[in-house]
């Protein structure tokens, strides 16, 4: 396989006496959807927060496109092209789609907001993702359905020529049709060449859309395997017991 | 590259349908205030022969001015979902600073005004810091300030109780008018700029291949707005003195351009700058704003500074209207009328929704009730009850429309 766009090697993180991440290795490839699965408390959130620069790991290396990098704050992550779509979306209901997509990073001419440039770029991004479900991009987010909100949040993440998009439980609150919509979008992101990290509890979603599955168990990477090499039962075993017959564990690879 | 598709809202009918669906979705904006204003004017106009005269119209504007300016400042704070209960007495304190500097220390009016605004901004900085950095609810902080500022005003006004102002410029704000010719020049200049900005925006969107507002609708709205304001200028240019030989009263009161100036600047800041956008964002979802990299605390403090700074301008208007500043300046119902004005105009108490123009429309509604019922000879008690009910209805409409908006 090609060089991963992002590799984590031996990442450790403790909060006081609680050792949350233990020697975690994690690879993310461009053009692939990497699913990150694990039970509650396995360390998924901590891991992505380390990638996003919200937490600084105690030790461990980050390799970005093969080169060692330091991520010591959210700005560093953003500068590398890493964007996170949080579970609670972080959208402002009272603002329209364009405003939300550019929130905090508005395009300006002098001191004045450049609305036409922002709207054009927002339109282009949504079209690039083949989003056809949004009627007008000047409607407020309050008037959107859950799936559409998720779409806006994802579109905001890819607006900045980002290279890695991390999605935290994007389908958790959605119905069947909207889940399908969002999963299609996730697939398209990867097909457009982005590296996508999908955190999910739903193995149906994972098997439908992921190329690669990484399972965390009690803060350790149980295994990171190609989707085609495993079946759902094995993944469940990895999540619940940290090992599964026939799956090479992450530690054994070294 | 694909060619940009130029789409327009298909027809006037389509635009109306769009508007209707927005209203149903809870985005009613200033509609209740405009309808209320029309209904009130018809009712009072039919019941009182004086209400619809040019003289009373000019009176109404000068009566409403100070409350409108405070309300315009409050819009910034209300947009964050906060409140400033001390804005009325901030106007009183800063008005006192202005008048004391002019009358007791012979400071030129413009320097005194700058000093008063600075005092207002500093007071706002204090309030904003307590709210944003210490996390004390704005209701409590500004309630405390309401009492404290009242005390400061009492101390400043001193034993005599009132400080008179005799500066011609300050007095002119509420008591003099532009000449009729200047009034028309002012109207034409402002309308031309308004039309040019509108055309420029449509043009820029066309060029970028974005959906533009239906031209027919824009023309209709612009002609309507300019027609009504033109009519107002015409009415204000009619001689309204009972004794024109002795003293002539005609033209736009000076306070109108002052309010218009604040309206334009405020609207520009709120809708065309990143800072304005961040105010809406913080009011809509502070956590989302924080995650988007917005300095939420700084936005909060700045909003309180703007609110108190504008209150200082209201203080000047009070001083001009009363020819003096007294311990009750900016007191009694001033603040409640101002909050009422912003809310009646369509600014949400829950934050995130509102415009500068809401303050003007709502302020006019409050002033029309006050003025109209006064003319009809109702007691002050009845006026308060009616204004209170109108405010309650507006807040109710706001709350209900919010419920409609949540999915």
How does this structure look, described?
Chain A: Residues 6-243 form the ABC transporter domain. The complex is a heterodimer of chains A (254) and B (407). Chain A is of the alpha/beta class. Chain A has a single domain (6-92, 162-253), classed as 3-Layer(aba) Sandwich (Rossmann fold). Chain A is built from 9 helices and 12 strands. Chain A has helices at residues 44-51, 74-80, 97-101, 115-128, 146-158, 176-191, 203-209, 232-241, 250-253, and strands at 6-15, 18-28, 33-38, 59-64, 67-69, 82-85, 108-109, 112-113, 164-168, 195-199, 212-217, 220-226. In chain A, helix 5 packs parallel to helix 6. The longest helix of chain A is centred in the C-terminal third of the chain and has 16 residues, at 176-191. With 407 residues, chain B is mainly α. Chain B is built from 16 helices and 2 strands. Classes of the chains: A alpha/beta (254), B mainly alpha (407). The A-B interface holds A 74, 86, 89-95, 99, 103-106, 108, 111-113, 116-117, 119-120, 123, 127, 136, 138, 140, 142-146 and B 2, 4, 25-27, 204-205, 207-211, 272-274, 277-278, 280-281, 283-285, 287-289, 291-294, 352-353, 405-407.
């Amino acid at each position: 396989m090609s060089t991963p766009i992002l590799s984590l090697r031996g990442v450790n993180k403790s909060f006081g006496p609680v050792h949350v991440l233990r020697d975690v290795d994690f690879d993310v490839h461009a053009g692939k959807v990497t699913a990150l699965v694990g039970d509650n408390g396995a360390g998924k959130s901590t891991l992505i927060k380390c990638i996003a620069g919200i937490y600084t790991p105690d030790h461990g290396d980050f390799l970005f496109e093969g080169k060692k990098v330091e991520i010591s704050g959210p700005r560093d992550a953003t500068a590398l092209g890493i964007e996170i779509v949080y579970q609670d979306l972080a959208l402002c209901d009272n603002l329209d789609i364009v405003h939300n997509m550019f929130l905090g990073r508005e395009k300006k001419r002098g001191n004045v907001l450049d609305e036409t440039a922002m709207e054009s770029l927002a339109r282009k991004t949504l079209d690039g993702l083949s989003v056809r479900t949004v009627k007008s991009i000047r409607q407020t987010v309050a008037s959107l359905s859950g799936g559409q909100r998720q779409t806006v949040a994802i579109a905001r993440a890819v607006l900045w020529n980002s290279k890695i998009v991390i999605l935290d439980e994007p389908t958790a609150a959605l119905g069947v049709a909207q889940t399908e919509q969002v999963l299609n979008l996730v697939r398209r992101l990867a097909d457009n060449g982005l590296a996508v990290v999908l955190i999910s509890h739903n193995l149906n979603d994972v098997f439908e859309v992921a190329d690669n599955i990484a399972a965390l168990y009690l803060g350790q990477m149980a295994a990171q395997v190609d989707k085609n090499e495993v079946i759902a039962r094995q993944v469940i075993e990895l999540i619940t017991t940290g090992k599964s017959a026939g799956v090479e564990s992450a530690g054994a690879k070294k | 590259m694909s060619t940009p598709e130029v789409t327009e809202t298909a027809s006037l009918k389509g635009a109306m349908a769009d508007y209707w669906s927005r209203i149903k979705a809870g985005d009613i904006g200033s509609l209740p205030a405009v309808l209320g204003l029309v209904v009130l004017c018809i009712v009072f106009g039919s019941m009182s022969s004086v209400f619809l005269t040019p003289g009373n119209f000019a009176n109404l504007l000068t009566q409403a001015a100070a409350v409108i300016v405070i309300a315009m400042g409050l819009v910034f704070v209300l947009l964050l979902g906060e409140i400033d209960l001390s804005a009325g007495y901030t106007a009183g304190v800063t008005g006192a600073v202005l008048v004391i500097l002019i009358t007791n220390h012979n400071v030129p009016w413009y320097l005194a005004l700058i000093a008063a605004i600075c005092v207002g901004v500093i007071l706002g900085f204090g309030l904003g810091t307590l709210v944003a950095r210490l996390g004390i609810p704005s209701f409590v902080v500004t309630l405390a300030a309401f009492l404290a500022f009242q005390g400061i005003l009492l101390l400043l006004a001193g034993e005599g109780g009132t400080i008179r102002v005799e500066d011609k410029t300050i007095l002119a704000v509420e008591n003099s008018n532009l000449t009729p010719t200047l009034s028309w020049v002012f109207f034409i200049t402002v309308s031309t700029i308004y039309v040019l900005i509108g055309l420029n925006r449509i043009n820029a969107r066309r060029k970028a291949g974005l959906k533009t507002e239906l031209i027919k609708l824009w023309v209709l709205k612009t002609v309507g707005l300019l027609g009504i304001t033109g009519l107002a200028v015409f009415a204000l240019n009619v001689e309204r003195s009972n004794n024109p030989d002795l003293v002539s009263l005609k033209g736009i009161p000076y306070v109108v351009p002052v309010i218009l100036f604040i309206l334009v600047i405020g609207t520009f800041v709120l809708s065309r700058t990143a800072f304005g956008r961040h105010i809406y964002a913080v009011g809509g979802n502070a956590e989302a704003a924080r995650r988007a990299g917005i300095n939420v605390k700084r936005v909060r403090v700045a909003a309180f500074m703007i609110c108190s700074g504008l209150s200082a301008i209201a203080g000047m208007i009070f001083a001009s209207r009363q020819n003096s500043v007294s311990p009750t300046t900016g007191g009694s119902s001033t603040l409640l009328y101002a909050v009422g004005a912003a809310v009646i105009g369509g600014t949400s108490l829950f934050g995130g929704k509102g415009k500068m123009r809401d303050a003007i429309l709502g302020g006019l509604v409050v002033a029309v009730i006050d003025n109209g019922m006064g003319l009809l000879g109702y007691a002050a008690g009845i006026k308060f009850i009616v204004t209170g009910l109108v405010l309650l209805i507006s807040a109710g409409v706001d709350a209900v429309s919010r419920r409609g908006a949540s999915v």
